[in-house]
Structures are given as C-alpha cells and as structure tokens.
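Form P-L/3: holo structure prediction, ligand s-citryldethia Coenzyme A.
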Amino acid sequence: MTTAKLILDGKEYEFPTVVGTENEVGVDFTKLRPTTGAISVDPGYGNTGSCASSITFIDGEKGILRYRGYPIEEIAEEASFTEVCFLLIYGHLPTQRELDTFNEKLTYHSMIHEAMKQFFDDFPVTAHPMMVLSAMIASLSAFYPRATTDEDRELNIIRLIAKASTIAAFSYKKSVGQPFIYPRNDLTYTENFLHMMFAIPAEPYVVPPVLNKALNLLLILHADHEQNCSTSTVRMVGSSQANLFASISAGVMALWGPLHGGANQKVIEMLQKIREDGGDYQKYMDMAKDKKSGFKLMGFGHRVYKNFDPRATLLKEAAADVLAGLGIDDPLLEIAKKLEDIALEDQFFVERKLYPNVDFYSGILYRAMGIPTEMFTVMFALGRLPGWISQWKEMREDPKGRISRPRQIYTGETKRPYVPMKDRKATVATPEEKLEPVTV
Ligand code: SDX
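OUTPUT (holo model):
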C-alpha cells in the first residue's frame, strides 16, 4: 500500500502513504491543498494524525499501551516513576548510574524559589489547584528565563519535574491552612511528595510503603498517552517555539476539562451523588442514555480504546488491594464496580463501545491515599508531566518541525457592505446587563 487515490470533481489525484512500525497506515496529505485546492475536514481530529512519534503506542481495539515499546503491564509492575520519566524523555531504560544521576538532579532542584511562596497567599482560597498548578508552572519561566540552548532546555526539564510536585503539595498545604513542608534529600520522588503532602511539623511522618507503591503506580499509568487533548495542546503551543514552561502550563489547562483529566474528580462526585441518592443505579444509567439529560457516565468511554483501557484494569485491581491493605471499606468502589457491571450488559454502552477509562477507578485510589477530590486532576498532571515533556522535546527536535496552523471551512456571511450606526436596527433583543459583584 504505497499510494492512495482521490477523485475530486472528476480529476484523479494520488497521495503517498506512511506506514508505522506497528503497521498503522496514514495517507500523507501534506500536498493536498496545493494539488487539489481542497482541504481535509475532521472536527475533533478523530481520523487525523498530527505527527509521527516514537514515544507511546496504543492499540484501541486490543487494549495495548506501550511506552517506548515496553508493555504498560510490565512497566507498572517493575519500574519506578522516575525511571519511566527517564525512559519517555530520553528513549531508553536508564542504567542504574543514569537513574541515580537523574534522581539526584530531581532532588537537587525540588525546592521552589522562596519568592514563589508569596503567590500562594495571593490566590483566593477557593482557587482550584489546577489553576494554581498552571499559573505556577507558567511563572517558572520568570525565574528561569533562559530557554534557548540544549543545556537550558535539559535543565528546565529537570526543574519542571522536580518543582511540580513541590508546587502541588504546597498548594494542598495552603488549601488546608497548614505550613509548607519542604522536600527532603533523603526521600525518593514519590516519598517526597507524600511527605510534603501529609507531614506536619509537630510530629515525624513516615511514608507508608503501601501508599508509596500506589502513588508510583498511579503516576506511571498516567505518564503518557500519545496525542490526547492536553498533549496535542502542548505540541501546538510548543510549535510556536514558546518555552517549555509556557507549553506545559497550557497542557495543564487542557487536562483540567471534565471530558479529559478533570473526569477523575467528576467520577467521584458522580459516585457520591449516586450513593446519596440511595444507589439508584438504573436512574443514572437511564440519564446517561438520554442525551437531553446532559448527564454522562464520567470515567466511561474513550476516543481510542474500544474494548478496554488497560490502565483501568490495573487501577481496579490496585484500588481493591490498597483498600484491603489499609483496611478501608469504601462504598464508592462497590458502586463503581456495580455501574461497570450494568454498563457492560447495557446495549447503549455495548453498541457505543463505552468501557471504564483511566479516570473511572483512579479517584478511589486517590481517596484511599487521603488526597482531596479537588487534587485528583493535579495528580493526573504530575503523572502526565514526563509524557508532555517527551512529546514537546520530540516535536522541538524535529528538523522538519513547523508551527501548527490548521485550516477551516468558512460558513459565515459572504461579502456585504458596512452599515453606518444610524442605519442599524436591533436584530436580537439585548438582555439588560446584570453586573454581579465578584464574591471571592
Ligand atoms: C482521558 O485521549 C486520551 O488518551 C485521554 C486520556 C489520556 O490518558 O490522556 O485517556 C484521559 O481524558 C480519559 C477520558 C475521560 N473523560 C471522561 O470519562 C468523560 C466521559 N467520557 C465522554 O465524554 C467521552 O467518552 C470521551 C470524551 C472520553 C470520548 O469522546 P468521543 O470520542 O468524542 O466520543 P463521543 O462523545 O462522540 O461519544 C460517542 C457516543 C455518543 O453517543 P451517540 O451520539 O453515538 O448517540 O457515545 C456516547 C456519546 O453520547 N458517550 C457517552 C459517554 N461517552 C460517550 N454516553 C454516556 N456516557 C459517557 N461517558
């Protein structure tokens, strides 16, 4: 399969195809408009490849997810999160010496500039932690403005991974009115995060191994997922040659949406609502099938996975293990399992191939770890950092890289003359402006 033929207005055109290492086939349309005058139209980009990438492979039909060729099931079982960061960013599993050096750099750069602490005081207490995370990551470009050489970029990658977990933990401490706990040099990346989150000055806090293991798994499972909404945002922003911090800050904002990473917070809120409503599953299943209700079964469905999300499978097992290990009986886990069982039998869900995605069970784990619901998407972002960084780096190192600039099909008014104010008539009722005072 080396070419694709297109017949447009009776004229035949031929386009080359590209075939990936997993035999995925793409039609190369880079010359489509110059040769045919037409563009391809694919709202939501469900059928459009934005790039070639060697970082992550997903097979949606078979539920396959691999980071640099390594199956997610093996990585989740064997690797540490910082090892996965190294693998995604530099393309190979690190030797022990490479990993030790990488970890040392992360430890060395884990503090944030003291001036940044002031920012936490200036946000309203109601500020969502995803907004804080995005704003603080963007502000790193003020403290570390050098971003032109490879050395600058390499150091900024380390700074970002190292400081993002400190920023996240500090935003939590601020939200609960407790003093910041600084990172320690004797703890691993995941231990440090949990220590910064849950230690208090009054007494020593030893990170429970079961929580550290759960956090390691959660961050690994979220680490990359090829060209999802937030990663495509990072690539789009980075394609203008905006710096790393600016590009990742934009990715955090894209992830925040409830259809994307924000779904993990919405899943728990949905399960709590079902519980408070007496566990009336059928009522919510019926709402999910009724478009007019505006209700979606959050944590269900995926643009790529059409049989199962391998991450959801691993998280479902881990949630049960961690809850048992901690002796916690979380009724939301039973409700989640019940919803999954009902959906797997329901024609509406079966026909549309809607299965639990990564967000369906992750919240149960975060809850078991004592992480507040509003921090769930921040946890997703911390996990996705190495993925965003590796995809940004791959895009910036592409010698054929260009600024991303899609086209459109215009459907607005055709040419018409300007109308002076005196001749204009109101075409729609202008509602009286109600200026609401800012309450926060
Ligand atoms: C993530 O892309 C990635 O890789 C993302 C991610 C990653 O790691 O980066 O995997 C992380 O974002 C996971 C998804 C988290 N979001 C949610 O759980 C929100 C609920 N899910 C839906 O909003 C939806 O399934 C999406 C956004 C995940 C996928 O949207 P698509 O591919 O555009 O699918 P669609 O909205 O066109 O749905 C197809 C049909 C529609 O019905 P019909 O018009 O065919 O009648 O399925 C229905 C939808 O109404 N549908 C749902 C549903 N999801 C889809 N109906 C009820 N509940 C749902 N959850």
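COMMENT: The longest helix spans residues 150-175.
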